[in-house]
Structure formats: C-alpha cells, structure tokens
Amino acid sequence: MRYLLRLGYSFARPHVRLCHQSVYRSNANERSLAVVLGEKKLEISTGRLAKFADGSAVVKLGDTSVMVTAVSKTKPSPSQFMPLVVDYRQKAAAAGRIPTNYLRRELGTTDHEILTSRLIDRSIRPLFPPGYFYDTQVLCNLLAVDGVNDPDVLAINAASAALALSDIPWNGPIGAVRVGLVDGELVINPTRLEMTSSTLNLIVAGAPSSQVVMIEASAENVLQQDFCHAVKVGVRHTQQIILTIQQMMREQKITKRTPVKVFTAPKDMVEHVRQLASERIYAVFTDYTHDKISRDEAINKVRLETEEILKEKFPQAEPFEIIESFNVASKEIFRNLVLNEYKRCDGRGLTALRNISCDVDLFKPLHGSALFQRGQTQVLCSVTFDSLESSVKADIITTALSGIKDKNFMLHYEFPPYATNEIGKMGGINRRELGHGALAEKALRPVIPKDFPFTIRVTSEVLESNGSSSMASACGGSLALMDAGVPISSAVAGVAVGLISKANPETPTEIQDYRLLTDILGIEDYLGDMDFKLAGTNKGITALQADVKIPGLPLRLVMEAIQQGTVAKREILGIMNKCLQKPRETQKENGPVVENVRVPASKRARFVGPGGYNLRKLQAQTGVTINQVDEETFSVFAPTPEAMHEAHKFISEICKDDQEQELEFGAIYTATITEIRDIGVMVKLYPNMSAVLLHNSQLDHKRIKHPSALGLDVGQKIQVKYFGRDPTDGRMRISRKVLHSPAASIIKTMSETQSISMSSSNSNRPSSDL
C-alpha cells in the first residue's frame, strides 16, 4: 500500500470505478460460441481465463467444464522429434470431493489420467507441421464435473480450441465426439447413465473436410456395418465443432508463428545419398531372408559407410544433417517399394499375414496359459483367478467422474527391453505399456461372462517384438482364458493395418495414392503413416484404435481399413481355433474353489472368534479369503483345492459338535470362572467349552461395578441358569442372579444331565425371567 502511495496512486472512489472499468475491458475479449450436437449444446469460450498462456479455451457440456492451456517455446528443442507433452489431471474439487490420501491433495497420476492424456495426444499430434521441434505443453484442467457428462471428449475439443486460437503453428482445428449405441440408436455424447446400456463406446476426432485423425473404441460385438455407420455419424458431427472454432479464429484474426526449420536435410546432401546408397538400401529391403535384427544391422552398415563419405564431401555439415539425409533417402526407398512395386520387405503380399503359431497349457501350476507367435512377435499370456474382493477398486475421484467403482477383469501388459534386443530399466510402468494393455483389455472384456465368480487377471509379457504386440496380446489372452476354462462367449483376435500414402503435391493434406498393409512389421509402423488396430470375434468388433501420423484420413480409407482388418481377423481366428476351439469345460485341478459355508447362529460367535480372531487365523494359516454373504452364510475362496481342504478341517475343528447340544433350557449348571473382567466374568460350563461372558448385570440383584465386589475369583465355581442362545447373535444366555429368587429350580451337573430324559426336564422347565 505504501509503495503504491509513493508512486502517486490514490484510493478514492473515482479510481475504484476506473479499476472496475479496466476489469470490464479485460473481459470484453471473452468470446463464446455454442454448437448443437444432437440434443446437447457444446459451448466453447476463450479470452477470460489463463490469458498468459499462448492459447486457452474452456469447453462446457451440461455442467461439466474443462479448461485447456497450450504453451510452446520460441526456441527449438535439441531433440529430433516433436516434444509434445499432454497432461490431463482429475481434480477432486471439480467433482466436489476431497482426496482420501494422507495429504488430502492430488498425488501422482492415475491410469485413467494417463489414458486420457494419450487420447488427447494422439488427436492433436498429427496436425503439427513437419519439422516443428519446439517444446509444447498442453495442460487439461477440470473446472467442474456434474457426474453426467464425461470430461475426456471435452478436453480434446478444448485442446483443439486452445491450439487453434494461439499463435502456435498447428494445422487444426479438430473436433471430437463420443458415439454410443443405445437400443439400436446412435447417441452423440451420451450421458454416463446412457453409457451403462450402450453397446458401443466410440470416440472419433475429425479434421476439416471430414478427415479422421483418431479413433478409440470399445464395443460389445458390434457388427461391422453398424460400426462403420457410427464412425460416419461421428465424423459428421465433428465438422460442426470445427466450423465453430474456425469462426472464432476468423473473428480473432489469429496469426501463427513462423518457426525456424531445424533438423532438415539439405537437398543436395539427400541427392548425394541417393547416388551413393540407393542400390544397397534397395537390396537390403528386397532381401527376404532378413529378419528384424539382420535387416537393422545391414541398414546400419550401409548408414555408417555412407555417413563417412558424406563427412568428407560436406565437412561443414552438422551431424544431424548427415543423419537426416540418410533417413530421408532410406524412408523414400522403403515407401516407394510398397507404393510402386507392391512389395514388402519380408516378401509378403500387401494383405498377407505373417506365419502364426499357438500353444496352450504351457505350465501346469498356472490357471491358464498361452503362447502366441506371429512372425517375430511373441507374447506369453497367463490367467490368474482370485476372489471377487481382489477386484480393482477405483478411487473416489475416478468413481465420481466416470462412475466406475470396481472391475473384476484386468489385463496387464509388459514390454521388457530384451524383447527388442535392448538394455533398459525394469520396474514401474510407462504410458505405452499402460495404453497397449488397456487396448487388449477392451478387446477381451465384452466376451467375459458378467457373473463369473472370480476376479480374472491376464498378464501379457512380450518376449519378442516386431510389430503389433498389443493385438498379439488380445489373441494370446483369448487362448489363455479358454485354457483356464473361462466360458467366454467367443474367441477374440486382433490385427494391425498400416498405411503407406503419397500426398497430392498441390494439396499436401489430400492423399493422392496409398497402400494398406495387413499385419504390419515394426519398420512398417515406424516408416508408415498409420497404425490401425482392430480386434473382435467372428461376429463383430470389440475394440479399435487408430493412430495416424498424417493430418487426416479420408472416410473411404477408414472404411477400407476396417474391411481389410475384419478379413484378417477372421483368418487369424481360424488358425487359433485349430489350437483350442472352445473354452475347457472344467477348470484345472489346481484351480481356485469357492464354497458357501452355513454357520448356525448358535455357532457364529465361535466361528468368528473374539474380534474376528478365528477368521484371521483361518485366512493366515490356509490362504483362503472369507466374506459374509448373509446372517448364516459365509463365502470361502481358496486358491487351490488343498487350501479348501485345510479350511474345511479348520472350520470343523472350530464348530465341531460338543456337549452344548445337551444343555437344557432352564436347567442350572455349575460353571467355572476362567477370567475376571470389569464388565463381568468369563465362565465355562464344561471343560472343552469356549468361555462365555456372564455380565455384571446377571451376577447379582444388587448393582455392582466389578465382580470382585461379590468376592468372585478365577477358578471359583458358581451356579448359573441356562436360557438358550440369543436368536440374533447366537450368544449363550446365562444368569446367576435368578438363582437368588424364590422360584423353583433344578440343580444339575453335566453327568446328571446325560442320565435325565428330556421328558423329565420339560416337566420342570420354568419360564425365563431374563
């Protein structure tokens, strides 16, 4: 305040009004437009929040609002790729919750956040101009979530608007919608409730001119024609979002930066590489005896020799220029081989599959196992069963945002470094592994029976990798599930379709010519334009993921890729059926067992034990898991039949029949005090009986605070009257104070009880005064 006064600021009322006027002028730049999608209105606004960012936009649907900011450095990065980072974070406050961790704040990242970040990244990355190597960060901030509309699709649209309305070079905008299939009708951006009854969860991101840049879908065996129709409807609605963002760009007169092109190969140097090494590179790519390792070694040998010559020819050239020159030339030769000669580097036809082999029941101790080999891609899958209580429990924020509480089927994908003959760090999980595992899980989930009594975990370990390991995981996972005896509704197979395209010289965003490749190799993925993964059964599609590296795909090409993938999928299923045609009718001998144990109310307290002691002891000694189903039934899960046998012996010992059944209602017994407590005494009516509590209120007619007031001590024998068991909790009801009343009673010992008939005892049975 003093500093402001020294500068001549006054805080009189007129200046307060001027301050308000300046705030109003800053909000005057805010611009908001709405687009109607089906029956819902999507609002896009900018200019009010996060104005220091290069671009900022807020997208609202219902009462769910997502803000996305985009910032890009003005100096190029030393890396020779597009250094784009997308971070989507779930905010507890947006859902009206407080995090449950000990710090009560957001910590780390969840699987859902990582998968959504990948979804946004794959949608916007293809539209950055070639050679744009500037660090760029896109942050997605949830402002408010109504629990009805999912924020992930809104985040894609907000990222598109933030980049389009900034000066960052980007060939957008794009639009994204979710398409559901409810009761045979397509629904655009369905609510969370509508998605519970939807057989399709399709997210499609479209570019101008009805181009497709990203598809992510899971489906419950949706027919090919219905799926294709859903894609077309989704793309049509994305165009409305694109037109809205383009209108905002025109109104704000957006001017993009002109970045300095770095890491580009000089034309004369590329031409020199063509003259020096074209024939040798072509010879390597047409030598069908090569496998992945030998081909890479042969190309690397040509590279090193060529680079040495280039260094002598161009002594002033930068190292990256020499490297990039060879990369440009070799990529050009590889792509022309496919486009012009219809040849692939392993000798296959464009639609041919690699050699496939399958094997199941590899290791006897496993509940289910399978080995799937496709070319040089090898995946080992195993199935493990556990109790339903072992299902994945979602955190409260994910539950509030997506409605997912728990799931009893999961697939975990592992990609160790030796799979590509490399050395790397082990432990933890990266975004790629998480994304590939999630895709394979989506492919298999629709065929898992919903009432299966176990939690199922499929682990997929990639032992060798030369392309399409995620789809191999879907194939191997399907075989492992059938080997484990899971009654899946149908076998599932997956395949990856690639693309080699040629752009129109006059209109670079248009494709002049292209070739679709079935079952792509790693090098075809790396040097190609698309990785189009499709999985499903003989009936329909269960999962689809399209990763595109060019600014967009025309719809006709997408439809053709789906058709080509469907044909290959059926061919793979035919090969898998020769190995194992249907699920085994029974589980393996060492498989888990679930049984329900009925415990009468009279024995429930003994079964559970003090404070649950007996249950904990049973679980620790035998490895079983016990959960109460209802008042008298407990569900026992055992990982093996031997564990269930041990549990049966333990339970029988705890609940074995004893002399308690001979206790007569209303009879008097001599009990032995085993323990003195503040609230009463623990007594036994016979030697092998579990001690029961005789409360202070039942010791004497006088009100006492401690049993010592009556001179009671451990080992002392006292007489008590038996009144059966409480019908609600099964506790034994006994009393000492009623014996001090004038009512007639019969004093019995255990030996006397055994010799007295039930008829005589019934004739002397008094009424209970408890």
Per-chain topology:
Layout lengths: L1 H5 L6 H15 L3 E7 L2 E7 L8 E7 L2 E9 L11 E6 L21 H14 L11 E9 L6 H14 L10 E8 L2 E4 L3 H4 L2 E10 L3 E12 L1 H29 L14 H19 L6 H22 L5 H23 L14 E5 L7 E7 L2 E10 L5 E2 L2 H7 L3 E2 L1 E6 L16 H14 L10 E10 L4 H15 L9 E11 L7 E8 L3 H5 L3 E7 L4 E8 L6 H25 L13 E6 L2 H8 L4 H10 L2 E4 L4 E6 L2 H15 L12 E9 L3 E5 L7 E4 L21 E9 L6 E4 L14 H6 L2 H6 L7
Helix pairs in contact: 3-4, 3-11, 4-6, 7-8, 7-9, 11-12, 16-17
What features would you describe in this structure?
This protein is of the alpha+beta class and 770 residues long. It has five domains: 2-252, 2-Layer Sandwich (Ribosomal Protein S5, domain 2), CATH 3.30.230; 267-341, Orthogonal Bundle (Arc Repressor Mutant, subunit A), CATH 1.10.10; 356-579, GHMP Kinase, N-terminal domain (Ribosomal Protein S5, domain 2, 2-Layer Sandwich); 593-655, K Homology domain, type 1 (Ribosomal Protein S8, Chain: A, domain 1, 2-Layer Sandwich); 661-763, Nucleic acid-binding proteins (OB fold (Dihydrolipoamide Acetyltransferase, E2P)), CATH 2.40.50. The protein contains 19 helices and 29 strands. Helix 3 (111-124) packs across helix 11 and helix 16 (613-622) packs antiparallel against helix 17 (641-655). The radius of gyration is 36 Å and the shape is elongated. Mean pLDDT is 86; it is low at 1-26 and 743-770.
